[in-house]
Amino acid sequence: MMGEMEEPRRVFLASVAKAIATFVGVVVGIPSLAYLGGPLARKDTADWVPAGALNTFARGDPKLIAVTISRQDGWRTVSEARTCWVTVSDAGEIIVFNGRCTHLGCAYGWQSQAGNGRFVCPCHDGTYSADGAVSGGPPPRALDELESRVDGDQLMVLYQDFRLGSPTKEPA
Amino acid sequence: MATPQRGMAGWWDERLGLTPLVDKLLRRHVPTGLTWWYSLGAATLFVLLVLFVTGVLLAFNYAPTPQDAYDSVRYIENEVPFGWFIRGLHHWGASAMIALVVLHMASAFVLGAHRYPREATWLAGVVLLLVSFAFGFTGYLLPWDQKAYWATTVGTNMAGTVPVVGSALVSLARGGTELGAATLARFYALHVLVLPALVITFVVVHLALVVYHGVSVPPGAWARMRGDYQARYAEAKAHGPRFWPEVIAEDLVLSLLVFLVLVGLTLFAGVPLEDRADPTDAAYIPRPEWYFLPLFQLLKLFPGSWEWVGVALVPAAIVLLLFLVPFLSRGAERRPLKRPLGTITLAVLGLGAAGLTAWAAATTPPATVVERGAVLTSLQLRGKQIIGQEGCASCHIINGEGGRNGPSLDGIRVRMTAADIHSFMERPMAFNPVATMQPLLPRISHENVEAITQYLLSLDGGSASR
User: Fewer CB atoms inside 10 Å of the end CB: C or N, chain A?
Assistant: First the structure.
């Protein structure tokens, strides 16, 4: 066979071919991975948003409210509604909870029972007491309390989402 | 024979049985005497792969609607990590694809590679040429910028000049009578679904035929081929290099050169993204991508009701000719100089396309006008155009030239506010009861008066005429 004599040349050409393929693969591949991984570098921002007139909140059953947040959605800036539950404690302190269950983000509801209501998530039966503490089911942490303040006669909420499924409350 | 592999590769090979196939594809021999021209097909395939990878990536962040398209492209360009790089490779890759397909085809013809027994390989290649142009045409609408909008407006309107079926063709191309959301959706569907399916199918056919027939024999070594072809070809192959690694290494060196050019263009020339598509912009000068310039310019040879000849008949005749090449050019001779008719035809087509391109380039007004060191905005440019059409300079000095019946407009921004300039032009008498200037309203629209105002505001100096 003639092949034997040309073997060193073949080995050389094979390594040239592999080197070129590797070079192109790296020059296209690394930017491609960075391109696809772009969302990893993005963090949601928290914004103060109006949550309604103060006199609409009272002791007793928590109230479901919708707030409008503005967020960067890819190339668009969009206004979207998010839900929160507002409770007023016996001491008159207002507490606002993010409307997503801390387990996997389902919207949870309020089950009213005489003097002993609870928040119930319909997805996996997670339950929370009125102060947000987990009382049953899979949720890894208490409901996410949001910062709030009073501005004139308005309740303002610092709307923010937190990482779901984690035992600690950290920004999403 | 290859030695049986061990370990993981051996495990898979026992189960998949790919070794015979890989041997057939990679260890086959090619004829002696191949030159760099024979690597053009491989370089074309390489660019196609780059276009596939970058195209899929672009689709991750692109939305094909008139509301979103431009912003999503800007987002890719400015916000997504390396988005500018991916888009750059795709943009320049598209141009390289067209250039390489045409070069590959021309060199195959010159080298007689379309002749027996590779006629079907040529026919699949013609389809791939047409698909490449279709990719280009559907692709550059997608950014929805001025060039996209206007070049596609002109491009689709060209179909409208065809007798009888013209308007039906325009509606089919646009998905309606006007360019809009339906057009963008169907161009996108063609660009990312239909054309890729076509290109994959025909590339597979084309490559399978290349493997089946082997690479063609250089015309210098063998002048005439027929009759005992199979035996002589087998002999040429027996002494030739192997596909892996000899031929692949050469193919990859050429591909690497092409790739470096694409990267260089992306890094140093960037990728154009013009202003957002503006259907009301009368000042924009539409020009297609360079590879459509010959077709664009061809129209000017067929004025009036004969336009469809340039739009449809001549291109259709050229496409038909390409499909007929293997049936018209059937001799055994492969040397180009011994095939004068074919070589002259190719030269005429090539020079014709080059001439039309040069003519188009020479007659294209600059897309941007620079006055006093600043680029005029499209609004200012429109204002300047209207000033020219209306003959304002017969009474006013504008940009250093003009009549003296009216006040010089050079440096008017120092003497009047923008709002006053605008209002004065619309109703001069409201400002000065003895003004002799005719009101521009209603002959010229409010928007166009504003365009004139914007241009006038760019004029400075002019103290000599005051």
Answer: N
Write the residue in B60, B72, B248 that is nearest to A75 by C-beta: B72
Provide the CB-side half-sphere exposure for B60 (13 A, CA): 21
Chain A positions touching B252 (Cβ under 8 A) are 16-17, 20-21
CB B240 within 8 A of CB B30: yes
Check A14 against B259: CB less than 8 A apart. no
Do residues B204 and B48 make contact, with C-beta atoms less than 8 angstroms apart? no
Distance from CA of A1 to the nearest CA of B (A): 11
Phi and psi at B182, nearest 5°, equal: -65, -40
Count the residues in chain B. 466
Contact A35 B82 (CB under 8 A): yes
Q: Please say if the pLDDT value at position B2 is more than 70.
A: no
Q: Which residues of A touch B (CB under 8 A)?
A: 3, 10, 13-14, 16-17, 20-21, 23-24, 27-28, 31-32, 34-38, 41, 74-76
Q: Name the residue range of residue A24's domain.
A: 2-39
* Residue B280 and residue B169 share a domain: yes
How confident is the model over B150-168, as a mean pLDDT? 89
Least CA distance to B47: which residue of chain A? A24
- Cα angle at B397 between B394 and B398, to 5 degrees? 100
Spell A107-128 as b/e; 16+ CB within 10 A means b: ebebeeeeeebbbbbeeeebbb
pTM higher than 0.90, yes or no? no
Nearest-Cα residue of chain A relative to residue B246: A13
User: What number is the average pLDDT over the span B205-226?
Assistant: 80
Question: What pLDDT, on a 0 to 100 scale, did the predictor assign at position B226?
Answer: 65
Domain boundary among B314, B341, B363: B363
Domain count, chain B: 2
Same domain, B156 and B32: yes
Contact call for A13 and B245, based on CB within 8 A: yes
Chain A residue nearest residue B239, CA to CA:
A2
**Model ipTM value:** 0.85
Domain end among B309, B333, B363: B363
Decide: A124 and A19 in contact? Cβ < 8 Å. no
Q: In terms of residue numbers, what domain contains B29?
A: 19-363
Same domain, B77 and B222: yes
pLDDT tens-digit readout, B275-307:
889 887 777 778 889 999 999 889 888 888 888
Q: Are residues B341 and B459 in the same domain?
A: no
Are B266 and B411 members of one domain? no
- Same-domain pairing of A153 and A87: yes
Same domain membership, residue A108 and residue A27? no
Kindly report the CATH number assigned to the domain that includes residue B337: 1.20.810.10
User: Which residues of A are less than 8 Å from B56 in CB distance?
Assistant: none
pLDDT in the model for residue B366: 67
pLDDT at B224 over 70: no
